[in-house]
Amino acid sequence: MAALLAGCSSTTDGDPRPNAADPTEPTFPTTKPSRSSPTLPPPPSTPTPTAAPPRAAEVLPAQNGYVFIETKSGQTRCQLSEAEVACEAQFTNPPTVGGSPANGVRLTANGDEEWVVGNLGDIPVVTLDYRPYSAVGWTIDASEAGTRFVNVATGRGMFVAIEAVDVF
């Protein structure tokens, strides 16, 4: 068996050296095989998906110039008038107002923000679903992440969530 293995080797004795007359690698003509690409039938037509049209904003009726809402989660309640939006919630990291953590934030139509300590009381709220609304000159976009209020006339607004309030 040793005789059989002696004839099999993966090495060749010697030193590789370039051809002294032409130290570059040899070139060999290579031709690419010619073949024609098959003609494929066109893919079956598929309908182009269309996005669902945006839902129209539901107009919330005012009572004596005010609209009272509550988020679907029940964690935030707000009062809207033409002049301002005021929301009440147990925010996770609110500023301190008068020595107490703020539980409310209000925004005027002009973009003035104020954190407050207070209670909206027993207001007759409309519970929002996750969709757009309109009320007393404000657009309302309710989502799982929070609620966005934008004043139609000024473009000023705020995004209210338990974790943070962002005024723009």
TrEMBL record:
Q: Pro residues compositional bias: what residue ranges? A: 39-52
Query: What are the start and end residues of every segment in region (Disordered)?
Result: 1-54
Give start-end positions of Low complexity composition bias.
27-38
Q: What is this protein called?
A: Lipoprotein LpqJ
Q: Which domain of life is it from?
A: Bacteria
